Structures are given as C-alpha cells and as structure tokens.
Amino acid sequence: xxITFSTLLILCGLWIHSAKIQATETQPETSLLVASGNFAPYxxxxxxxxxxxxxxxFKEALAQVGYPNVEFKSLGNEAIKRNFLIGRAEVALNWGxxxxxxxxxxxxxxxxxxxxxVRKASPLALLQDLSTMKGFKVVSFVNATRVFGLQYExxxxxxxxxxxxxxxxxxxxxxxxxFDAKVGDWLMFLWSLGLTPQQQQNMPYTALDLLEYSxxxxxxxxxxxxxxxxxxxxxxxxxxxxxxxxQNWFKSMGVVPYQHQxxxxxxxx
Length: 269
Hints:
Elements: H1 5-26, E1 31-36, H2 53-64, E2 69-74, H3 77-85, E3 91-95, E4 104-105, E5 108-110, E6 114-119, E7 137-141, H4 144-147, H5 149-157, E8 160-164, H6 167-175, E9 181-185, H7 186-193, H8 197-201, E10 205-208, E11 217-220, H9 223-239, H10 241-253, E12 263-265
Parallel strand pairs: 1-2, 1-3, 7-8, 7-9
Antiparallel strand pairs: 3-11, 4-11, 5-12, 6-9, 6-10
C-alpha cells in the first residue's frame, strides 16, 4: 500500500497525541498546595531550618510519594477550610470538625501538647482530675469545650472561664495572674515566653496531662493520595525518620525536647 505524504503527517500527529496522553496518564503530578496552620512553633514560615514540625513531616512524606514541590500556605482555621473547599488546596492540615462529603480523612491526626498549665506554687499543681478545677478561673482557646469533651465542658460551666481566638492572648492573661490556669498547648506556651532551654527548665510553671484529646484531622481531596501518604507516614514512623525530623525541629526552634506522640492514629469506629 502506498502511503502519501499527507497520510504520513496525520499518522505522525496521531502518534504524538497518543504519546502525550500516555505521558499524562503515567507521570504523576509533582507539585501541590497544602493549606496549613499559621502558629509557631508548629507552623512557621520565617525560619530557614524548618517549616514547623507538621509541615516538615508532610513535606518529606509527600516528596517520597512523588510530590517534591509542595507549597504550604499558612492560614487560620477558617481560611484553611475556605481554601480547601473551593479547590485551591489538595491537602488540609489542622482541620477541625467533620470531614465534608466527597473528601478523605487521613488515619493520622496532628496531636498537639494540650495540657492544663498552672503555677508550680498553686494548689492546682497537685490536680489529678478536672472536676477539682471547679471554682478556679481558667482561660483557653476558642472551641476548647468542643475539643476536650463533655467532662471539660461541664467543669468549666461554673468557673470564671473564658476563651480567646488567639492563644498568645491567653498566655499573657495567665502570666499576668488574671487566671489560675491556662488550658492549651504547652510548647506554644513555652515558645511565647522566649526563654532559653535552661530558663525553661527553671520557670515557675508546670503542665498537667489531664485532657481527653484525639488531635486535629488531615483531609485530602484525592483518596489515592491519602492512602499513599498514610502508608508513607507509617513507614517513616517505623524507620525512626519522623523522630529524627521531630528532634531537628526541637533544635531549630530552641524548644526543650518533650516526650509526646505528635502523630496519633485515628481510632476506628
């Protein structure tokens, strides 16, 4: 059969088009946007040594599943939800509330060091149960009563209790002795004081582990990506890579290392 020049051009065009389709199907995307938190020391954008603990962990996990170019956008909680729901971000860290229909929740949760923070000289330093806090003035962050469960909510109903959006405000109010206790993240509290590791060891505050707290969610637009990253996080936990990232983060931020499971597995219902 004789092939004309025009037929040859058509065949070449079809071959090039087919090659482009195959390349698109076989080559994964290499960049994506993550809507992330905006509070130090967990999420930072002005330190050349770290993006913050959770950004560092997810940056490495995403790189190892084929996404070496990840942008982390620092946002408040409501802005995280807006950016994710309108399609600007493929992943949302520090998601609060119910997973929307059509999106996929990681089995891993970000678990902050939420504690009851008191003065060492206070009667509350011997506290062993939340119910004993009744009658004391307590300050915490917005929606803490939802985060820490029914016992916490019932205990705080009868207190001089107040919540603020900005945890730095709660720190200042507690340090100025306007409240008997602060409920919030212990490492954020240490960070806000601006103390050296040696000064942190000798400060007049202590943290009590009395709260029921499962952590905040990580949400994905794509189920396949969710599954890949979850598997990679499991591998990184087992190999000790996440522990190495965590210790490097402590060092970079100048915070005294604290024994804590920062990634918690979501309990199956």
